[in-house]
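REQUEST FORM: STRUCTURE PREDICTION
Request ID: SP-0412
Submitted by: Lab K.M.
Chain count: 1
Length (residues): 368
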Amino acid sequence: MKHTYDFGISQDDFLLEEMALPLENGSLMCIASGGEVPLSLIAKHNIHILALDVSLNQIRLCRLKAAAAQSLEPPESAAFLGFIKRNEPLRTVYFKKMAVLLPKDDLEFWNDNFHLITTGVIRNSRFEKYLLFFCKLFYNYIGKRKIYELLNMESVECQAVYFDKHISKSLIKWLFKIVFSSTLYGNRGLDVQGLRHQNGSLGTQFYLKFREFFTSTPAKKNFYLQFYMLGEVLFEKALPPYLQQDFHENFLKNIQGLTFECGTIQDKVKSIESLRFANYALSNISDWMEEEAMNSLVKTIVNRTEVPVNICARYIHRNPWNDGNQHLFSKLEIDFSKKALGVDRFPFYTMTKSMVNTTSYDSNSKTK
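STATUS: Completed
RESULT:
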Protein backbone atom coordinates (compact mmCIF):
# COMPACT_ATOMS: atom_id res chain seq x y z
CA MET A 1 0.00 0.00 0.00
CA LYS A 2 1.37 3.41 -0.99
CA HIS A 3 1.27 6.21 1.58
CA THR A 4 1.54 9.90 0.74
CA TYR A 5 3.37 10.68 3.99
CA ASP A 6 4.22 8.68 7.08
CA PHE A 7 3.30 10.94 10.00
CA GLY A 8 0.36 13.31 10.38
CA ILE A 9 1.45 14.36 13.88
CA SER A 10 4.96 14.46 15.27
CA GLN A 11 5.31 11.80 17.96
CA ASP A 12 7.85 14.01 19.77
CA ASP A 13 6.20 16.09 22.48
CA PHE A 14 7.77 19.53 22.08
CA LEU A 15 7.53 20.07 25.86
CA LEU A 16 10.64 17.91 26.25
CA GLU A 17 12.67 19.97 23.76
CA GLU A 18 11.48 23.03 25.64
CA MET A 19 12.59 21.45 28.91
CA ALA A 20 15.94 20.15 27.66
CA LEU A 21 17.26 23.00 25.49
CA PRO A 22 18.04 26.72 26.05
CA LEU A 23 15.78 27.93 23.23
CA GLU A 24 14.86 31.57 23.87
CA ASN A 25 16.73 33.96 21.55
CA GLY A 26 18.66 30.97 20.23
CA SER A 27 18.76 28.64 17.24
CA LEU A 28 17.61 25.09 16.64
CA MET A 29 18.10 22.49 13.94
CA CYS A 30 15.54 19.70 14.20
CA ILE A 31 13.68 16.95 12.40
CA ALA A 32 10.45 18.21 10.82
CA SER A 33 8.33 15.02 10.90
CA GLY A 34 4.70 16.13 11.38
CA GLY A 35 5.78 19.67 12.31
CA GLU A 36 4.49 19.94 15.88
CA VAL A 37 7.93 20.49 17.42
CA PRO A 38 9.12 23.45 15.29
CA LEU A 39 5.65 24.99 14.92
CA SER A 40 4.93 24.82 18.64
CA LEU A 41 8.35 26.13 19.65
CA ILE A 42 8.15 29.08 17.25
CA ALA A 43 4.75 29.92 18.75
CA LYS A 44 6.25 30.17 22.22
CA HIS A 45 9.82 31.36 21.69
CA ASN A 46 11.80 33.97 19.84
CA ILE A 47 14.08 31.55 18.03
CA HIS A 48 15.51 30.67 14.63
CA ILE A 49 14.56 27.12 13.57
CA LEU A 50 15.60 25.01 10.60
CA ALA A 51 13.42 21.89 10.37
CA LEU A 52 14.53 19.14 7.99
CA ASP A 53 13.01 15.94 6.70
CA VAL A 54 14.13 13.51 4.04
CA SER A 55 10.52 13.23 2.83
CA LEU A 56 9.35 16.08 0.61
CA ASN A 57 5.72 15.27 1.38
CA GLN A 58 6.38 15.59 5.12
CA ILE A 59 7.80 19.05 4.42
CA ARG A 60 4.73 19.89 2.35
CA LEU A 61 2.53 18.84 5.26
CA CYS A 62 4.51 21.06 7.64
CA ARG A 63 4.25 24.04 5.29
CA LEU A 64 0.52 23.42 4.98
CA LYS A 65 0.18 23.53 8.77
CA ALA A 66 2.19 26.74 8.93
CA ALA A 67 0.06 28.35 6.21
CA ALA A 68 -3.14 27.30 7.96
CA ALA A 69 -2.00 28.75 11.28
CA GLN A 70 -1.08 32.03 9.56
CA SER A 71 -4.25 32.40 7.50
CA LEU A 72 -6.99 31.08 9.78
CA GLU A 73 -8.15 31.61 13.31
CA PRO A 74 -6.78 28.91 15.67
CA PRO A 75 -10.07 26.93 15.94
CA GLU A 76 -10.37 27.01 12.15
CA SER A 77 -6.79 25.77 11.73
CA ALA A 78 -7.38 22.91 14.16
CA ALA A 79 -10.55 21.94 12.31
CA PHE A 80 -8.94 22.25 8.90
CA LEU A 81 -6.00 20.01 9.81
CA GLY A 82 -8.21 17.38 11.44
CA PHE A 83 -7.55 17.88 15.14
CA ILE A 84 -11.21 18.81 15.45
CA LYS A 85 -13.97 17.09 13.47
CA ARG A 86 -15.64 19.29 10.86
CA ASN A 87 -17.53 18.65 7.64
CA GLU A 88 -15.69 18.43 4.33
CA PRO A 89 -17.09 21.56 2.60
CA LEU A 90 -15.78 23.75 5.42
CA ARG A 91 -12.25 22.45 4.93
CA THR A 92 -12.51 23.37 1.26
CA VAL A 93 -13.39 26.96 2.23
CA TYR A 94 -10.46 27.10 4.64
CA PHE A 95 -8.05 25.78 2.02
CA LYS A 96 -9.01 28.55 -0.42
CA LYS A 97 -8.26 31.15 2.26
CA MET A 98 -4.75 29.86 2.92
CA ALA A 99 -3.68 28.63 -0.53
CA VAL A 100 -2.00 31.92 -1.41
CA LEU A 101 0.73 31.21 1.16
CA LEU A 102 1.70 27.86 -0.33
CA PRO A 103 4.56 27.46 -2.84
CA LYS A 104 3.33 26.67 -6.34
CA ASP A 105 4.52 23.06 -6.24
CA ASP A 106 2.86 22.49 -2.87
CA LEU A 107 -0.41 23.96 -4.10
CA GLU A 108 -0.38 21.64 -7.12
CA PHE A 109 0.40 18.69 -4.86
CA TRP A 110 -2.53 19.36 -2.51
CA ASN A 111 -4.92 20.04 -5.39
CA ASP A 112 -3.90 16.69 -6.89
CA ASN A 113 -4.51 15.01 -3.52
CA PHE A 114 -7.51 17.03 -2.42
CA HIS A 115 -9.16 14.09 -0.67
CA LEU A 116 -6.43 14.45 1.96
CA ILE A 117 -7.57 18.03 2.57
CA THR A 118 -11.28 17.35 2.85
CA THR A 119 -10.86 14.45 5.26
CA GLY A 120 -8.26 16.15 7.45
CA VAL A 121 -4.57 15.91 6.53
CA ILE A 122 -3.33 14.61 9.88
CA ARG A 123 -5.71 11.64 9.65
CA ASN A 124 -4.34 10.45 6.30
CA SER A 125 -0.78 9.52 7.17
CA ARG A 126 0.47 5.98 7.27
CA PHE A 127 0.95 5.98 11.06
CA GLU A 128 -2.29 7.76 11.99
CA LYS A 129 -4.47 5.63 9.73
CA TYR A 130 -3.00 2.50 11.25
CA LEU A 131 -3.13 3.61 14.86
CA LEU A 132 -6.57 5.23 14.70
CA PHE A 133 -8.03 1.99 13.36
CA PHE A 134 -6.77 0.00 16.34
CA CYS A 135 -7.57 2.75 18.80
CA LYS A 136 -11.16 2.54 17.61
CA LEU A 137 -11.17 -1.17 18.50
CA PHE A 138 -9.76 -0.30 21.91
CA TYR A 139 -12.33 2.47 22.33
CA ASN A 140 -15.19 0.09 21.54
CA TYR A 141 -13.79 -2.55 23.87
CA ILE A 142 -13.28 -0.22 26.85
CA GLY A 143 -16.44 1.80 26.22
CA LYS A 144 -17.12 5.42 25.34
CA ARG A 145 -18.23 6.40 28.83
CA LYS A 146 -15.03 5.24 30.50
CA ILE A 147 -12.78 7.09 28.07
CA TYR A 148 -14.73 10.32 28.49
CA GLU A 149 -14.77 9.98 32.26
CA LEU A 150 -10.99 9.61 32.41
CA LEU A 151 -10.42 12.52 30.03
CA ASN A 152 -12.53 14.79 32.23
CA MET A 153 -10.75 14.03 35.49
CA GLU A 154 -9.08 16.84 37.40
CA SER A 155 -5.89 15.11 38.57
CA VAL A 156 -3.40 12.49 37.44
CA GLU A 157 -3.96 10.69 40.74
CA CYS A 158 -7.63 10.23 39.88
CA GLN A 159 -6.67 9.11 36.37
CA ALA A 160 -4.33 6.46 37.78
CA VAL A 161 -6.96 5.04 40.12
CA TYR A 162 -9.57 5.02 37.37
CA PHE A 163 -7.20 3.44 34.85
CA ASP A 164 -6.27 0.59 37.16
CA LYS A 165 -9.89 -0.09 38.02
CA HIS A 166 -11.62 0.28 34.65
CA ILE A 167 -9.13 0.32 31.74
CA SER A 168 -6.20 -1.95 32.53
CA LYS A 169 -7.34 -5.27 31.02
CA SER A 170 -5.44 -8.42 30.12
CA LEU A 171 -6.83 -8.36 26.59
CA ILE A 172 -5.09 -5.03 25.94
CA LYS A 173 -1.66 -6.62 26.43
CA TRP A 174 -2.56 -9.24 23.83
CA LEU A 175 -3.83 -6.51 21.48
CA PHE A 176 -0.54 -4.60 21.81
CA LYS A 177 1.42 -7.68 20.77
CA ILE A 178 -0.69 -7.97 17.63
CA VAL A 179 -0.82 -4.26 16.73
CA PHE A 180 2.94 -3.74 17.16
CA SER A 181 4.17 -7.04 15.78
CA SER A 182 6.97 -6.65 13.25
CA THR A 183 4.91 -8.33 10.55
CA LEU A 184 1.86 -6.09 10.89
CA TYR A 185 3.28 -2.80 12.19
CA GLY A 186 6.38 -2.98 10.01
CA ASN A 187 4.33 -3.30 6.85
CA ARG A 188 1.31 -1.11 7.56
CA GLY A 189 2.03 1.30 10.40
CA LEU A 190 5.67 2.23 9.85
CA ASP A 191 8.40 1.87 7.26
CA VAL A 192 10.15 -1.38 8.15
CA GLN A 193 13.49 0.48 8.15
CA GLY A 194 12.41 2.11 11.42
CA LEU A 195 12.43 -1.34 13.04
CA ARG A 196 15.92 -2.34 11.85
CA HIS A 197 17.36 -2.18 15.39
CA GLN A 198 14.40 -3.71 17.19
CA ASN A 199 15.20 -6.18 19.96
CA GLY A 200 12.46 -8.13 21.70
CA SER A 201 8.74 -7.51 21.55
CA LEU A 202 7.80 -3.95 20.64
CA GLY A 203 4.24 -4.65 21.75
CA THR A 204 5.42 -5.58 25.23
CA GLN A 205 7.67 -2.52 25.35
CA PHE A 206 4.83 -0.17 24.40
CA TYR A 207 2.37 -1.90 26.72
CA LEU A 208 4.67 -1.12 29.67
CA LYS A 209 4.41 2.57 28.72
CA PHE A 210 0.65 2.41 28.16
CA ARG A 211 -0.28 3.25 31.74
CA GLU A 212 2.04 6.29 31.71
CA PHE A 213 0.32 7.51 28.55
CA PHE A 214 -3.02 7.54 30.37
CA THR A 215 -1.91 8.62 33.83
CA SER A 216 1.35 10.60 33.96
CA THR A 217 0.02 13.90 32.56
CA PRO A 218 -3.35 15.67 32.89
CA ALA A 219 -5.66 14.06 30.33
CA LYS A 220 -7.37 17.38 29.63
CA LYS A 221 -4.05 18.77 28.37
CA ASN A 222 -2.90 15.75 26.38
CA PHE A 223 -3.82 16.17 22.72
CA TYR A 224 -2.21 12.84 21.82
CA LEU A 225 -4.43 10.94 24.25
CA GLN A 226 -7.57 12.74 23.15
CA PHE A 227 -6.87 12.47 19.43
CA TYR A 228 -5.90 8.82 19.34
CA MET A 229 -8.61 7.66 21.71
CA LEU A 230 -11.51 9.75 20.36
CA GLY A 231 -10.38 10.87 16.93
CA GLU A 232 -10.32 14.54 17.91
CA VAL A 233 -8.99 16.94 20.54
CA LEU A 234 -11.72 17.90 23.00
CA PHE A 235 -10.10 20.79 24.86
CA GLU A 236 -8.62 23.86 23.18
CA LYS A 237 -5.91 24.20 25.84
CA ALA A 238 -4.65 20.73 24.90
CA LEU A 239 -3.93 21.68 21.29
CA PRO A 240 -0.33 22.39 20.21
CA PRO A 241 0.47 26.09 20.86
CA TYR A 242 0.49 27.03 17.17
CA LEU A 243 -3.22 26.17 17.17
CA GLN A 244 -4.10 28.00 20.38
CA GLN A 245 -5.50 31.51 20.60
CA ASP A 246 -3.18 32.40 23.51
CA PHE A 247 -0.11 31.97 21.31
CA HIS A 248 -1.53 33.12 17.98
CA GLU A 249 -0.08 36.63 18.04
CA ASN A 250 3.33 35.34 19.05
CA PHE A 251 3.22 32.69 16.33
CA LEU A 252 2.51 35.33 13.66
CA LYS A 253 5.35 37.47 14.99
CA ASN A 254 7.91 34.67 15.06
CA ILE A 255 6.95 32.54 12.05
CA GLN A 256 9.53 34.16 9.76
CA GLY A 257 12.18 32.56 11.93
CA LEU A 258 11.07 29.06 10.90
CA THR A 259 12.28 27.33 7.72
CA PHE A 260 11.19 23.90 6.49
CA GLU A 261 13.59 22.18 4.12
CA CYS A 262 13.72 18.80 2.44
CA GLY A 263 16.96 16.94 3.09
CA THR A 264 18.86 15.02 5.72
CA ILE A 265 20.33 16.57 8.80
CA GLN A 266 23.54 14.67 8.00
CA ASP A 267 23.97 16.46 4.68
CA LYS A 268 22.94 19.82 6.09
CA VAL A 269 25.51 19.97 8.88
CA LYS A 270 28.21 19.15 6.34
CA SER A 271 27.14 21.70 3.74
CA ILE A 272 26.48 24.83 5.81
CA GLU A 273 29.52 27.09 5.55
CA SER A 274 29.17 28.44 9.09
CA LEU A 275 27.45 26.01 11.44
CA ARG A 276 26.24 28.10 14.36
CA PHE A 277 23.16 26.29 15.66
CA ALA A 278 23.27 26.09 19.44
CA ASN A 279 20.57 23.42 19.74
CA TYR A 280 19.79 20.17 17.94
CA ALA A 281 16.69 18.00 18.32
CA LEU A 282 17.44 14.73 16.55
CA SER A 283 14.15 12.95 17.22
CA ASN A 284 14.72 9.17 17.03
CA ILE A 285 16.96 9.07 13.96
CA SER A 286 19.28 6.58 15.67
CA ASP A 287 16.48 4.03 15.25
CA TRP A 288 16.74 4.52 11.49
CA MET A 289 20.53 4.86 11.09
CA GLU A 290 23.51 2.59 11.52
CA GLU A 291 25.77 3.30 14.48
CA GLU A 292 28.67 4.48 12.30
CA ALA A 293 26.47 7.02 10.50
CA MET A 294 25.07 8.30 13.80
CA ASN A 295 28.56 8.73 15.23
CA SER A 296 29.66 10.55 12.09
CA LEU A 297 26.73 12.97 12.39
CA VAL A 298 27.51 13.80 16.02
CA LYS A 299 31.20 14.28 15.29
CA THR A 300 30.38 16.58 12.38
CA ILE A 301 28.12 18.71 14.59
CA VAL A 302 30.76 19.00 17.30
CA ASN A 303 33.67 19.57 14.93
CA ARG A 304 31.98 22.18 12.76
CA THR A 305 29.87 24.14 15.25
CA GLU A 306 31.33 27.41 16.46
CA VAL A 307 29.23 27.75 19.63
CA PRO A 308 28.47 25.51 22.62
CA VAL A 309 26.09 22.76 21.52
CA ASN A 310 23.08 21.19 23.23
CA ILE A 311 21.60 18.03 21.72
CA CYS A 312 18.49 16.10 22.65
CA ALA A 313 17.45 12.87 20.98
CA ARG A 314 14.90 10.14 21.48
CA TYR A 315 15.07 6.46 20.79
CA ILE A 316 12.95 3.33 20.99
CA HIS A 317 15.38 0.67 19.77
CA ARG A 318 18.94 2.02 19.83
CA ASN A 319 20.55 4.58 22.12
CA PRO A 320 22.22 7.27 19.95
CA TRP A 321 25.10 7.69 22.42
CA ASN A 322 27.77 4.99 22.51
CA ASP A 323 31.51 4.46 22.91
CA GLY A 324 32.07 6.07 19.54
CA ASN A 325 30.64 9.47 20.48
CA GLN A 326 30.21 9.79 24.26
CA HIS A 327 33.73 11.18 24.67
CA LEU A 328 32.65 14.28 22.74
CA PHE A 329 30.27 15.48 25.44
CA SER A 330 31.09 17.44 28.56
CA LYS A 331 27.70 16.48 30.01
CA LEU A 332 25.46 13.56 29.13
CA GLU A 333 22.10 12.46 30.51
CA ILE A 334 21.27 9.08 29.01
CA ASP A 335 17.77 8.92 30.49
CA PHE A 336 16.51 12.48 30.58
CA SER A 337 13.05 10.88 30.37
CA LYS A 338 13.08 10.34 34.12
CA LYS A 339 13.11 14.10 34.61
CA ALA A 340 10.36 14.42 32.03
CA LEU A 341 7.97 12.02 33.72
CA GLY A 342 4.80 14.01 34.24
CA VAL A 343 5.71 16.29 31.31
CA ASP A 344 5.93 14.00 28.28
CA ARG A 345 2.45 13.41 26.86
CA PHE A 346 3.64 10.66 24.50
CA PRO A 347 6.00 8.68 26.75
CA PHE A 348 6.86 5.80 24.43
CA TYR A 349 10.42 7.01 23.72
CA THR A 350 13.50 7.36 25.88
CA MET A 351 14.80 10.94 25.80
CA THR A 352 18.52 11.74 26.02
CA LYS A 353 20.28 15.07 26.52
CA SER A 354 23.91 16.01 25.91
CA MET A 355 26.01 19.14 25.92
CA VAL A 356 29.45 20.03 24.61
CA ASN A 357 31.31 23.30 25.03
CA THR A 358 33.07 23.33 21.68
CA THR A 359 35.60 25.90 22.87
CA SER A 360 36.97 23.26 25.26
CA TYR A 361 38.25 21.15 22.34
CA ASP A 362 41.35 22.02 20.42
CA SER A 363 41.78 21.18 16.74
CA ASN A 364 43.58 17.91 17.52
CA SER A 365 41.00 16.55 19.98
CA LYS A 366 38.10 17.44 17.69
CA THR A 367 39.42 15.28 14.87
CA LYS A 368 39.59 12.10 16.92
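NOTES: Residues 126-142 form the longest helix (17 residues).
Reviewed by: T.R.
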